[in-house]
């Protein structure tokens, strides 16, 4: 063969390499471009899912905000229902109280008092003596009478205003019977600020519907108050779920994705619609940019591949020559192709065997250094390799494990737990699991294990690799954090509910007096909270609770206040109510009772009632100003009744003796712990 023929024969493979490199560049770039587009689409879908979830979460948040505002109206109205003028049937005097009440309500709101038959007896929109409208909304009123609880109306047309109205109705009780209905009627627009406060997606629509499916408030407002929403939203709501989502078309004809939730208290529905076009536009822009960038990358890669192909052909030929030389024992001459990888391969060709042995030693060091069990187990379930950690967990040296059965090393209990996973990996499938396992070293560990099969060329399972990591610390930490989070959430909600009740019920003639009174009550709560926290929320010692509240009033000689009673622990849910009750009694005694006089004496005693193991606490005042039964029930009496009788199902008895007030509190046995009562002295002791 001539030199020219040899040259032509050599050039043909070079041309083939160029084509293949070109195809390789395209094969790498085009799938990457496709993947990039798919990732953009996937990102869009994830964004849509995020917006959907966010829309539903926003609807839930708005519904909660509406419920809280309605709850505020209800609380205020309940307080108004207990005013003396209304309780005494003095509707003329009640008019002034209602006017003051309406100053703190939405503009245009009015108060209505109706009898049990629905006949209006009072309407703040009409002057005194004006004819009152007849029966209206009797179904809602009958529901309030039947349940004895408040009610929230659907949208209706006011008989006086002739405009859309909403109403909150509460019962008025006398002698334990519902005798009248007190209602607060207001314009649906009063709820619009709640919707305006929300941060909505662009061009989104938010709607508040009553139980009949009629619009109460809608943004944007299209004069839809009292009208049904779009047909597609009605169909979505007709599915009857408490919350849900789906495709709708707004009243403006905009295709949207809508999410809704129904309130469990009012039955009203909040629906939010997000235009689909707002979600699709970003995808179009991103895909266009991705395609343009991808095309540029494809062209650049193809040009570079053609350039590299020429130099690669010659370098590969030189590497083949060196490989043959190494195989024949000849000297290998390092190449200078300009390609680092090929030149390095040529230089290291003769050292391959030594490098492999070094790598095996390094792998052993790595396996021994990682904080987990690493092993290789044959298909006969005998160990072929194990790292040093087995010596600590299994009480056997790794070299002694080789050839021994798994059951002999791990023990019967551990084998029973891992046997199903071993059966799975022996079928050729990798498996992972987490479980509590008792190991031969006597330690129970929560572990993560992974079994990966070792397959022969024909697919047969030769054995499997096993790694086992100790996750005990993390697992127990997660459990402790979960329990702590639940406890903190529960206690915080209880405390906030108590503070809210105290704020709502606290009354005073001046702002300064209100602040002082409220501060004292909240401080009492804080002291009880501190006692509970110090005892890890297992309860609080009754003596400590009483001492905390009476300490500010103790005289220097220590004779004014004395305590008597055995050791008893108040359970967590009883500590704060009892602390509040003692605080109110102490405050009253300091203002009007025995603690307001130099000769006054206070004796607080408690004992265990034999009949039912209940706690009986007696508060006895002597030596103070003369006492007489008050003309009206004050906040202190109301709080005692609410905290002891209503909250804990206990009992309260007040005896207004001329010599001083005597109060008996009975705390049910379920709220106290007498386990340490035998350890305490019952002798009198000063504060």
Explain what you see.
It contains 18 helices and 25 strands. It is of the alpha+beta class and 687 residues long. Strands 1, 2, 3, 4, 5 and 6 form a six-stranded antiparallel sheet that branches. A six-stranded mixed sheet has the order 22-23-21-20-18-25. A hairpin with a 4-residue loop joins β1 (110-115) and β2.
Strand content: 15-25%
Give me the number of helical elements.
18
Here the CATH topology of the largest domain equals Beta-Lactamase
Q: How much helicity do the residues have?
A: 40-55%
Kindly provide the name of the CATH class of the largest domain. Alpha Beta
Q: What's the CATH H-level homologous superfamily of the largest domain?
A: PAS domain
Major sheet characteristics:
6 strands, antiparallel
Mean pLDDT: 78
Shape: flat
Low-confidence stretches: 1-14, 493-497, 679-686
Number of strands: 25
CA distance, first residue to last residue: 121 Å
Gyration radius, to the nearest Å? 41 Å
What structural class results from the helix and strand content?
alpha+beta
Q: Would you identify the CATH architecture of the largest domain?
A: 2-Layer Sandwich
* Number of domain modules: 3
Top keywords for this entry?
687 residues; alpha+beta; Beta-Lactamase; Heat Shock Protein 90; 3 domains; six-stranded mixed sheet; 47% helix; disordered N terminus; disordered C terminus
